[in-house]
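For concreteness, we quote verbatim a single protein encoded this way:
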Amino acid sequence: MHPPVPRTWTVELRPQHGGPALYCPRCSPHGQALQATSARPAALAHLARHARSDALPAHLRTCQCHERGCRWHPRHRGCAGPVLLVLTREHGGRTWRLADICASCATATPNAAVVPDTTLTAPSAQHPSEDGPGSGRGKRARRRRGPSEQVRVQDMLSYLASALPVGICPEARLLAVQCALRADNRGQVRMPIGLLRSLRLAHDPALWTELEQHCWLRVLQPGTTLPHVRTLTAQLIDPLSRAPGRPDRLQAADWALRITAAAPLRALPANARLSALALAAHHSPGHARTGVEADRLRRACGLHSSGLGTLLDQLLAAGTLTSWTCDPATDELHWTPSQPTTRPHPTPAPPVCPGD
């Protein structure tokens, strides 16, 4: 009987002369010097290597937060739900933790993001390879077990909120969502120019440059200008954004594309379209009116403490929402989406959202 693998890994980014240093208690007691722009990707890559080397089958994974007396979050009703791989940013991004945490603890942990169902799991727990031959029955079974398109987009927005800096522009964040969901198992993505036009991102190479500067991806056609190519190919550098089950992820990418390219949103700026995607991803299909913490939506959209109320008003005026309210005491946001056939309603007096 082997002792259980401790599925918790932590790295620190310590300031020093010449740039930050990556410190890992397990393998780099003296730290590893980094450039400031590569600090965040280096921390994620280091955590990913630990998760890959310490892989466990799903039935052996336990909530590491519970094992430590649930010290990582305020008190709640107790551990419950599946065990997830969760990335947590602490101390303003100076400390990063990757750990197996149950769904209940993950929800209660501040600045935590669920890592999508990645290739870092144990081989026995992975789905069949998407690139190899397989029976149709196996593919159908895999799709039934996987999360819905809505949940996949919600998880990806949550993860990118931690993996990308807050200062990333909303256009680049929309592009990152599509790249992560459309990438193959090797992290390579091909984006046709027609799809980029649907996203209203067709002729803006600055977005790719911005993601490259933050070491999230690398364009495999350096020096090419977008108007002269039919397909742009890139390699994702972030190992935690790669996931198996490409047919399911492509469905999620198409679902996100339909949301952001809907007729009422086409004339709106990218931050409003990104907000509409976050609202759709967090909407409860069985309820006309949905409630969620406003801070969760701000993080998913890469917003600072202000600005969410203005974007919701734009969606209200465009007719994609019929109402929204935000409780200043609890920071709980409630909204009612319009049906596809609903015409825009007259815009009522805008409510006040905390931070606006």
Summary: The two ends are 56 Å apart (CA to CA).
